[in-house]
Amino acid sequence: MKNRVEVSLNNEPEYDFEYFDYPASVDDDAFEFFSDYGSEFADDLAIDVIEGEYPGNDYKGAKLGIDIEEANRICQAKEFPIRFVESPEDN
Q: For 10-65, how does the pLDDT look when each residue is reduced to its tens digit (9 = 90+)?
């Protein structure tokens, strides 16, 4: 493994790959999803889309404003194609 790391660090990076523009974290993922499709779900699920909490803070995310079980009941009843799970960070 050490040899592979040394070889990697000593060589020029390869730039012949295709660039994919996608969110880098689950917070970014949630922000992108609810920013794009939010109007369809956000009101029913009390979702707050956050883009920078204050100047200089670049946090992006979406926060569920109701408990997970209630959100999933609403999603099922309204046939929304999403379901929520508890994050290990929430425990």
A: 766 665 555 555 556 777 777 888 887 766 778 889 988 888 766 667 788 888 89
Q: Is 45 exposed, middle or buried (0-12, 13-18, 19+ CB in 10 A)?
A: buried
Model pTM score: 0.60
Q: Which helix (H) or strand (E) holds 48?
A: strand 47-51
Total Cβ atoms within 10 A of residue 39: 9
68-78 confidence digits (pLDDT tens)? 999 999 999 99
Question: In the chain, what are the domain boundaries?
Answer: 23-83
**Burial class of residue 53 (count of CB atoms within 10 Å of its CB; 0-12, 13-18, 19+):** exposed
Measured CA to CA, the distance from residue 86 to residue 69 in angstroms comes to 10
φ, ψ of residue 22 to 5 degrees: the values are: -145, 155
